[in-house]
Amino acid sequence: MNTRRQFIQGTVAPLALSALGPALAAHAFDSALKPAPTGPGLLVSQRPPVAQRKFVSAAVEQTIVAAKARIADPETAWLFENCFPNTLDTTVTTRVVEGRPDTYVITGDIDAMWLRDSAAQVWPYLPLMKQDAALQSMIAGVVNRQARCVLLDPYANAFYDNPDKVSYHKDDLPKMKPGVHERKWEVDSLCYVIRLAHGYWKQGGDVTCFDAQWLEAMKLIVATFRNQQRKTGDGDYKFKHKTMWPSDTAAGSGTGHPVAPVGLIASVFRPSDDGTVFPFLIPSNYFAANSLRQLGAMVRALYRDPAFPADCLSLAAEVERALQKHAVIEHKTHGRILAYEVDGYGSHYLIDDSNVPSLISMAYPGAIGVNDPLYRSTRKFLFNAANQPYYVKGRAAEGTSGPHAGRDMIWPMGIIIRAMTTNDDAEIKRCLKMLAATHAGTGFMHEAFHKDDPAKFTRKWFAWANTLYGEMILRLLESKPHLLG
Fold first, then answer.
1. Res. 10: pLDDT tops 70
2. Beta partners for 328?
3. Start-end of H helices in 327-424
């Protein structure tokens, strides 16, 4: 299996795929999967047997037992038990390379490691690692592996375990290096590398993984961000891919649509792996500014050289100034709101996407405050189907969809993030009910499901969405236990 769309293409006959169209074709395989039994007394664990699990953490297992005891609704407790450990159960491969931990984390049904997904998949386990040395070593292995991936190609978004493996997309231009699965330039991919390293460090992780190789990778990240500000041209990145979906390749000459050199960082693709309309992707630039500040603080504490931290903070400040000037638009009804994408020339695109980072999700990693007036007005605008073409309401649920899986396909990830970025109890309850009602009896979150029929879904095995669900439940048990007890 290869990219998300190649996974679909390899599963459904090409003629049938063409007849269905991209949105329906996306769930043609997964909707036929047999659901798990969910009747009274039939909430059977959907985890693999212990002997078949890829990684077992005593701290995670203890957390599952303790959390389930505090969750009153049996189905929610069952979903948590299935979802929270899914990354460890099914996607992690650990080893030691040159005396250092090395961890390969697949996204689920695709045997490749996305920088974004892998960082997000192990993120909820960070608070538990001090109770479990093996878990800490596993996460250190992800930090080590990601640094090597960045040094291999900072513009790539996904990599193979085998460094000699040639990608299925071998005809993409320019030719990819062995070990690279896909080369879609997404600003957030490198932000997630920083976020995981910073989170690991803040949780008291062993600093030996922050060695010369890691520092070299961090300097390459900052250099790549500066290159993609495109102040003196289009920068180094070009990408051309033969595909039946225009959003799977870069527009124009392979660099995306033109942008003005205003200080923002161009992202040719979104976190959904779809091409941007305007390359200044606002959520990713907020994420970048926040990540650069984290990196600056971290490097300043770990190294004596003050020049690189100053460079990080300088770039963060420049991006923030550009966001203040170009990211905010004046809507005729909703007043000041954030655009999703801009080009620096004055054009903007008013949508949101379910993948993280999105406009709604910016409050999740702390890139903007939940109570920030600009964020609140943007949120109100986006959760209205009259304003936003990718906010849909159906018989089964309502939520943010997107062009990746189709306009009528709601992403559970978007519902989870909605619950994690509000203080409104009623809104959180609504999200919990929709998630419990739309897993189609499988006991897991999916990439997307049809707004009228959750049995039509994409990706039965999508570990990031599963682990994110577990993270949401743990957050609620800490901050709003009355909603689950």
1. no
2. 338
3. 373-382, 412-420
Instruction: Provide the residue type at 301 as one letter.
Output: A
Q: Are 354 and 400 in contact (CB under 8 A)?
A: yes
Among the listed residues 426, 433, 416, the one whose alpha carbon sits nearest the alpha carbon of residue 475: 416
**3-state SS, residue 144:** helix
Contacts of 328 (CB under 8 A, 6+ apart): 336, 337, 338, 339, 374
Tell me the C-alpha to C-alpha distance, in Å, between residue 412 and each of 44, 267, 401, 436: 22, 24, 9, 10
pTM value > 0.90: yes
Beta strands in 140-182 (DSSP E): 158-159, 180-182
pLDDT at 151 over 70: yes
Alpha helices by DSSP H, 10-85: 14-20, 22-25, 58-68, 74-83
Q: Judging by beta carbons within 10 Å of its beta carbon (0-12, 13-18, 19+), is residue 426 exposed, middle or buried?
A: exposed
Beta strand 113-114 with 398-400: parallel, antiparallel or unpaired? unpaired
At CB < 8 A and 24+ separation, what contacts does 405-408 make?
A: 405/23, 405/26, 405/27, 405/447, 405/448, 405/458, 406/22, 406/23, 406/24, 406/26, 406/448, 407/23, 408/23, 408/450, 408/451, 408/452
Q: Quick check: 14 pLDDT over 50?
A: no
141's enclosing H/E stretch is: helix 133-152
CB 437 within 8 A of CB 431: no
Would you say residue 265 has pLDDT above 50?
A: yes
CA atoms within a 13 Å half-sphere pointing along the CA-CB vector of 449: 32
Distance CA 136, CA 98 (A): 18
For 31, the enclosing helix (H) or strand (E) is: none
Task: Look up tokens 């078949």; give the residue.
Answer: 52
Omega before 357 cis (within 30°)? yes
Q: Describe the strand order of the beta sheet including 448-450 as a list of residue ranges.
A: 409-410, 448-450, 453-458
CA 438 – CA 55 distance, rounded (Å): 28
Total length of the chain: 485
Of the pLDDT bands very low, low, confident and very high (cuts 50, 70, 90), residue 39 is low
Mean pLDDT of the chain: 92
Q: Which of the four pLDDT bands, split at 50, 70 and 90, describes residue 37?
A: low
- For residue 222, pLDDT over 70 is answered with yes
- With cut-offs at 50, 70 and 90, classify the pLDDT of residue 166: very high
Instruction: Kindly report whether the peptide bond that precedes residue 174 is cis, defined as omega within 30 degrees of 0.
Output: yes
CA distance linking residue 1 with residue 112, whole number of Å = 9
Token digits of residue 446: 């999916």
Q: Are 91 and 121 in contact (CB under 8 A)?
A: yes
Is there a contact between 292 and 323 (Cβ–Cβ < 8 Å)? no
